[in-house]
């Protein structure tokens, strides 16, 4: 029976060839993967032709990171340095850390893994970790704010936040880098007017009237005197941290805030559909109720009373179970299940028709179809959960009247969105 035996041989050879090919492919993948991660091409010293750089380390939730980016953009512009822009972190990310630990933390959070490349290959998407869920994902800021590039402030986006990698990218040696070593979350603040006019005794009262203690006062001139090609800061968080006393500085900050409104066609499309159901742009009322953090829970009851009062005043016409009155109401919140939350119960008792993002769940899956999904690192099977706070803010930002939570940076950002969106419509 030679015929079947030939077939067996033939099949055997095909099988062996397949195994060999697969092994080579896997090996090749592995090699390109690790090359991408670990080997920096040996580069000749780059002549930056006078271009200098400013870098910083992000931390804390997205609204705080956006405040950090705003401060860093102002500083880069004041110092005429190209800003090294880290990615935006969605989901859970740690807060400020002492003793330079933030460098290490950021490096670990953003270091590319060989399997990330494989996940972009649709056929391999079922592969191990590509299916796992992570607590955070990074995207380039341009994904959230597409007009950031129009600011005219030179920027270079990085995905892997690593001092070593930055040194290699810019071909800088250690003595060409000025590193700021923070000793506290609020180590320094920058005064943007001439030295002699800067506050001397109590540099802790700021334009918003709030007091905050920074350890040191810096002046633009001090920073300009630093000649090194790279100034690497650590934390830059704080609402009044980078002064805007000069008129052109205040104008620049307004421009930056405008550019840092959410702009992304896919996110806008989903938002627009929700807004349509709420009666249209600037045709509904909104409040933001922050739950997640203990810091916000204690005064919550009082805030909610104030917010109900605000809604009653802003509302015209009587409310009942099918209508809030003339305006619909949208509640932006991080409450896990808003309608079952005892804290939120007074809102829904008074305004049973008030809406939350969960009421528009069926509109969210279209976020997954965007090509932007491939920008998420680590790769995600689903990006919807990460974008819920973004959409929530975008919807609330289109309200006619809005009342947030006084100590939440997320609320502050919705107020900024509101003014930008009103201007642009
Ligand atoms: C800003 O830096 C660039 C180099 O990146 C230089 O060409 C330019 O002259 C500088 N501008 C000022 C006002 O110093
Ligand atoms: C609720 O209010 C709307 C508008 O004010 C009105 O058209 C509707 O009849 C009211 N429904 C009830 C049950 O009172």
Terminal CA distance reads 82 Å
Shape: globular
Q: Which strand order spans the largest sheet, edge to edge or round the barrel?
A: 5-2-1-9-6
Q: State the helicity in percent bands.
A: 25-40%
- The chain-level mean pLDDT equals 86
Strand segment count: 12
Describe the largest sheet: 5 strands, parallel
Radius of gyration: 26 Å
- The SSE order reads HEHEEHHEHEHEEEHEHHEHHEHHEH
Structural class: alpha/beta
Number of helices: 14
In what range is the share of β-strand residues? Answer: 5-15%
Protein name: O-fucosyltransferase family protein
Organism: Umbelopsis vinacea
Keywords: Membrane, Transmembrane, Transmembrane helix
Written account of the structure:
Keywords: Membrane, Transmembrane, Transmembrane helix. The protein is an alpha/beta fold and 425 residues long. The protein folds into two domains: 53-259, no CATH class; 265-369 and 383-423, 3-Layer(aba) Sandwich (Rossmann fold). The chain is built from 14 helices and twelve strands. A five-stranded parallel β-sheet has the order 5-2-1-9-6, with helices on one face. It starts with a helix and ends with a helix. Residues 317, 320, 322-323 line the site of one 2-acetamido-2-deoxy-beta-D-glucopyranose.
